[in-house]
Design goal:
Number of domains: 2
Strand order of the largest sheet: 1-31-30-27-26
Radius of gyration: 23 Å
Number of strands: 38
CATH topology of the largest domain: Methanol Dehydrogenase, Chain A
Number of helices: 4
Structural class: mainly beta
Strand content: 25-35%
Largest sheet: 5 strands, antiparallel
């Protein structure tokens, strides 16, 4: 087929799909399938992946004199991997979300020999940004309707569990599963949390924590600890929806506590015992009759087993762009909220985005790390394009470093005057947060450089939006621009920053020509693994960021990147093929690929 024929064919497909969507009066379907057809045409001439690395001048000068910029490596990194180190049992490997692997079979000297060893194809066109777990000889991951267990060396399917339901929104995403005591736990787009037997995939229980008729869903990857499963609801961009956090009994699914992440009103539903909270509506200054909206969660969470504290990334307030509708501090949106994991009682919070009118959620799970200098730090990367380091000994901010393009961030939004700003509403760090390379005392984070233009509605029109409808405040009838008009496809980039955990200064940074949203995985072998939204998978030298290996392995890589040991060999598993409404990506099915050094070539 000639390129012209492909373009014509793709255009015809697009027209037919959108027409079909309107014919059935189902706008969401037209948007969903229309975006897939548009992306088919976009990617006919997509550029190849490209990456360039820059080393900070301070790092170069210390290298030339033989001095070391990094403090001494903590002793724990030199220890042999334990049994738990060979697995990847939680969304960010550890409950503290540091994502560091002590495996070193794949290293800077042999990484050039990496190959794709096998691939599992789900056969689904879906928003595939699931994390991946590896436990006891199985890889676990999820799509919108299915949960999978496959062999970690051969990619052979062990089981899949299918759920049929009507989703709350057209954004068909699920960010993965949790594991505890032989059970797999996940959320669904119709508001349930489900437990399966990890060996067979048999459903053990299900519990509803959200109302899909209102637009609520549960796409976040749960975490599990001490007999409890922790997860919250999404939907905070929809008028009237409030973010909430839950602890469920891992054996029965019973709700042990419920915590409202924004002020609870008298008529709000109660699904479980109410956890202690000081939150009132005093921090929200809304027009009369307008509902408090936002604070939902949609990625994953972090827990400190030493203190029993749960760290929750809090989403944006709504209307997203209508700051004049929210003249207070809008607690606890734009914050990391800290709760007692056993009781749900409020302990403290860190307000990182004090006035949010850009849809800059504090979305991804923070990482709790112990630096080479002995500090216990909370590393957080919101959508505002910065990396934050917070000293957990004093609860004081140590640094705030821009790690992608930040432009026009302080410009006010007023009706009739379009504003272009960076990071855009789909920029910064989305659902995968920082990782910590213990060997080099570096915090590593992947970022999106993609900007947005917003034209604000007049205040009375924002107020007139019906409950249960998207509530951004963007003045557009085009549903693709509900959260602003993104810059043209391919007028974007991705960044990896490697930042000294104690000083907050970047040591090296790499720029790609596609956004980076995958998990970042540093290892004791001196290699950091990640992928970009063009389907390019990379292994970089963790010390200076130079490329050791890179290859396009599939569609957009926006989910899990993990490493583990199976049958005596270190492997890396990668989720690729993200296809969904908000992202212009290559049209391809969701896959998990296993990468490693073939036997006999190490």
């Amino acid at each position: 087929m000639t390129r012209l024929a492909q373009i014509i064919g793709g255009t015809l497909v697009l027209g037919g799909i959108i027409a079909a969507g309107f014919a059935y009066f189902y706008w969401d379907s037209a948007v969903h399938y229309g975006s897939m057809a548009i992306n088919y045409v976009r990617y006919l001439d997509a550029p190849k992946g490209k990456i360039t690395t820059e080393v900070a001048s301070s790092a170069k000068s210390t290298a030339s004199t033989g001095a070391s910029e990094a403090p001494a490596t903590p002793a724990s990194t030199s220890e042999a991997p334990t049994a738990s180190d060979t697995n990847w049992p939680s969304y960010n490997k550890t409950l503290t979300s540091d994502r560091f692997s002590s495996l070193a079979d794949i290293n800077a000297k042999n990484a050039h020999k990496l190959k794709v060893l096998c691939t599992f194809d789900t056969g689904e066109y879906t928003g595939f940004n699931s994390g991946i777990l590896e436990v006891d000889g199985a890889l676990y991951f999820a799509t919108e309707y299915n949960t999978f267990a496959i062999d970690p060396s051969t990619c052979r399917e062990k089981w899949r569990a299918h759920e049929s339901y009507t989703p709350a929104t057209p954004q068909g995403v699920n960010r993965g599963v949790a594991y505890l005591d032989g059970k797999i736990f996940r959320g669904t787009q119709d508001g349930r949390v489900i437990a399966y037997d990890a060996k067979t995939g048999k459903r053990l229980w299900q519990t509803s924590i959200a109302d899909p008729k209102k637009g609520e869903s549960v796409p976040a990857a749960p975490i599990a600890w001490n007999g409890l499963v922790f997860v919250g609801n999404a939907g905070g961009d929809i008028k009237g929806i409030k973010g909430r956090m839950y602890a469920l009994d891992a054996t029965t699914g019973a709700i042990k506590w419920e915590f409202y992440l924004v002020p609870k009103s008298k008529n709000d539903p109660e699904r479980g015992p109410e956890a202690a909270s000081p939150l009132t509506g005093a921090s929200w200054k809304l027009p009369a009759g307008q509902p408090i909206t936002g604070g939902a969660t949609w990625t994953s969470y972090t827990l400190d087993p030493e203190t029993g504290l749960l760290y929750i990334p809090g989403g944006n307030p709504a209307p997203d762009f209508g700051l004049g509708m929210r003249e207070g501090s809008d607690l606890y949106t734009g914050s990391v909220v800290v709760l007692d994991a056993k009781t749900g009682a409020y302990k403290t919070h860190f307000k990182l985005v004090p006035k949010d009118w850009h849809d800059w959620d504090v979305s991804s799970a923070p990482a709790i790390i112990k630096t080479a200098a002995g500090k216990k730090i909370l590393a957080v990367a919101p959508k505002d394009g910065h990396l934050y380091g917070i000293d957990l000994g004093t609860n004081k901010e140590l640094y705030r470093l821009p790690v992608t393009k930040v432009d026009n961030a302080d410009a006010p939004f007023t009706p009739g005057k379009a504003v272009h700003f960076c990071p855009g509403s789909t920029g910064g760090a989305e659902w995968n947060g920082p990782a910590y390379d213990r060997s080099n005392n570096l915090i590593m984070v992947g970022e999106v450089q993609w900007c947005t233009t917003v034209d604000l509605m007049k205040k009375d029109k924002i107020e007139d939006v019906n409950a249960g409808a998207p509530w951004s405040g963007e003045n557009s009838i085009n549903p693709f621009n509900t959260w602003g008009q993104a810059d043209p496809t391919f007028d974007w980039a991705g960044w990896v920053y490697a930042v000294d955990a104690d000083s907050g200064q970047w040591r090296w940074r790499a720029k790609t020509n596609y956004p980076i949203q995958s998990g970042m995985t540093p290892t004791a072998g001196g290699v950091v693994f990640f992928g970009d939204m063009g389907g390019n998978f990379y292994a970089l030298d963790a010390q200076d960021g130079h490329k050791l290996w890179g290859q396009k392995i599939g569609g957009a890589i926006g989910g899990g990147v993990i490493t583990y040991k199976d049958r005596g060999a270190q492997r890396v598993a990668v989720a690729s093929g993200l296809t969904e409404v908000l992202w212009p990506t290559e049209l391809t099915t969701a896959k998990v690929s296993v990468v490693g050094i073939p036997d006999g070539t190490s």
